[in-house]
Amino acid sequence: MRGLLQRVSSASVVIEGKEYAAIEQGLVILLGIKEGDDKKAADYLADKIVNLRIFEDNNGKVNLSAMDVGADLLVISQFTLYADCRKGRRPSFIKAAKPGISEPLYNYVVEKLKESGLRLTTGKFGADMLVKISNNGPVTIMLDSEEKR
């Protein structure tokens, strides 16, 4: 399971020309799920997301977590995080889990993140979305549950 975290000053999701979700200071989490991922991978990723120290303290040091600053969270499903571009010119998404597997795990991660008490909103699973991101820093970090193993 992969989570691409972007620290943002604001972000929103537009679906069919209408704003669907929006956050202020916080994290946009682009979440990719691959075949073989499970709740253990989801637990690891959710814990890492809310506790990773990627926000600045009063001294300008990157020393605070989403929990410390009361960050907003916006979670977006993103199967393209498992694109394999090694052959040819068209990415293969064969490693990405099918919706029947990935949607329940996506929802599980969302529920685990909600347990943090942080304000959380999501995109719409499987929808064609326009994601507007004001990346702050810029800070963009890739988390992968495989790193724990």
Question: Describe it for me?
Answer:
It is built from 3 helices and 8 strands; from the N terminus they run βββαββαβαββ. With 149 residues, the protein is an alpha/beta fold. Strands 1, 2, 3, 6, 7 and 8 form a 6-stranded mixed beta sheet that branches. Helix content is 22%, strand content 40%. The chain is globular and about 45 Å long. The mean pLDDT is 96. Helix 1 packs across helix 3. Strand 1 and strand 2 form a beta hairpin. The protein has one domain: D-tyrosyl-trna(Tyr) Deacylase, Chain: A (3-Layer(bba) Sandwich), CATH 3.50.80.10.
Structural class: alpha/beta
Count every helix, treating DSSP H or I runs of 4 or more residues as helices.
Answer: 3
Using only CA atoms, what is the Rg?
Answer: 15 Å
> Judging by the overall fold, what is the CATH architecture?
3-Layer(bba) Sandwich
What is the typical, i.e. mean, pLDDT? 96
Q: What pattern of helices and strands is seen along the backbone?
A: EEEHEEHEHEE
Low-confidence stretches: none
For the record, what is the CATH homologous superfamily label? Answer: D-tyrosyl-tRNA(Tyr) deacylase
The major beta sheet can be summarized as:
6 strands, mixed
CATH class assignment? Alpha Beta
Beta strand count: 8
Helix content: 10-25%
Q: Give me the CATH fold name.
A: D-tyrosyl-trna(Tyr) Deacylase, Chain: A
Q: End-to-end distance, in Å?
A: 12 Å
Tell me, briefly, the overall form: globular
Overall number of domains? 1
The proportion of residues in beta strands is: 35-45%
